Each structure stands twice: as C-alpha cells, then as structure tokens.
Design the sequence.
C-alpha cells in the first residue's frame, strides 16, 4: 500500500492562505501520481530522473552541441555547463538551506541507480538545471528548442513521478532556471549582431569610414 504523500512546510513556519492552497494542490497531485506508479511511463520517469542526476544528460547534450556546431558549439556548451554548475551550487548551498522544505513522504523505490538527495526539497535543482540547460543549449539552434523544452518538462515531471519532489518544487525550479537562462543569454550572447560589429569597426577608423561601411552594406 502506497504511503500518503505529505507536503511538508518549512519548520517553524505556519503556511498562510497561499501556502495552504499550494500544499493542497501538491497533495492532490501526489495522490493522483501515487495511483499511477507502474508501466512504461513510470519506468521512463525513473530513467529520466537518473539521467538528470548531477546534470549528466545536459553534459551529454552539451558535448553533442560542441561537436556538431562548429560556429558556436563550444561557446554554447561551456556557457551552459558553467551556468548550470553555478546555479546548482547556489540552489543547493543557499536557497534550499533557507527554505528547508521536506520532501514528499512517498518512499518510492528508485530505479536505474537514481539517488535520493540528502538536501531539502524546494526548489527542484533538477528542474532548474533542466530549464537553464534547455534554453542555453538550444540558443542559436532553432531545431533544438522544442525537443529540449519537452525534455526539460519531462525531467521536471519525473521528479514528481518518482516521489522526490512536490509539484510546486518543480514549477519553482523551472521558473528559476528559465529566468537564469534568459538572463545569461542576454548578458553573454553567443553571436554579437553584425550591426554591432560594423559599428565597432567603424568607430575605430572614424566617421567617414562609418558612412562608407553603411553604404557598402546597403550595396551588398
């Protein structure tokens, strides 16, 4: 018989109105999932959860990007992995120690060498890494956006399916990772725009050359 999942608040903090609604939603989702922990989809969730441990799946995708994209693959891969590493350190070392939320009391036997993290539950580091990884590794590769986006959502859901996170943990993790990914893309672009390159070159040689450069660009 499956144990009733428990959405645990942070110690010493009584949840307010919003907190109670979040906990009620978490409990409803966990009860629904508890009745569906079997079959191929459940096995896939365990496999995804294991593959995402320590960012392994994102490291593998980063290696593929580095090897197949000669123009900016290495930059995209290194940018993504560094971001995921820093983000994970902040989430595990600071955010989770602040929120101190308990994990679901589901006691699901894990498969595929998945591990039960010793850290607290909120937010989901796996979901945060998934969102940041998907955004950064698909940057400049339009064909990668949908597959990596779906993979990120699947990894996040796998943490609920395997009983390692509450739904609100993974939603918060996805939001955090998406915000970090978008900020990094903005601050550290892979390819400066051609207009910016032209303006930088023109400013180095003077205003006359700038006019000539613009005319040359129009003629081309």
Sequence:
């Amino acid at each position: 018989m499956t144990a009733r999942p428990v959405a645990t608040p942070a110690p010493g903090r009584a949840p307010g109105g919003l907190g109670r609604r979040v906990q009620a939603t978490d409990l409803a989702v966990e009860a629904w999932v508890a009745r569906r922990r079997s079959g191929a989809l459940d096995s896939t969730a365990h496999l995804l959860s294991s593959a995402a441990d320590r960012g392994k799946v994102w490291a593998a995708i980063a290696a593929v990007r580095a090897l197949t994209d000669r123009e900016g693959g290495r930059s995209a891969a290194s940018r993504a992995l560094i971001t995921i590493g820093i983000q994970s350190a902040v989430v595990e070392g600071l955010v989770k120690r602040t929120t101190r939320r308990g994990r679901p009391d589901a006691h699901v036997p894990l498969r595929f060498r998945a591990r039960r993290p010793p850290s607290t539950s909120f937010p989901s580091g796996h979901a945060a890494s998934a969102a940041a990884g998907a955004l950064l590794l698909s940057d400049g590769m339009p064909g990668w956006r949908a597959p990596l986006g779906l993979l990120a959502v699947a990894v996040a859901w796998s943490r609920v399916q395997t009983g390692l996170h509450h739904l609100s943990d993974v939603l918060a993790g996805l939001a955090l990772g998406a915000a970090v990914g978008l900020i990094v893309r903005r601050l550290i672009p892979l390819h400066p725009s051609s207009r910016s390159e032209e303006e930088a070159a023109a400013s180095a040689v003077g205003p006359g050359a700038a006019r000539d450069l613009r005319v040359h660009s129009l003629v081309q």
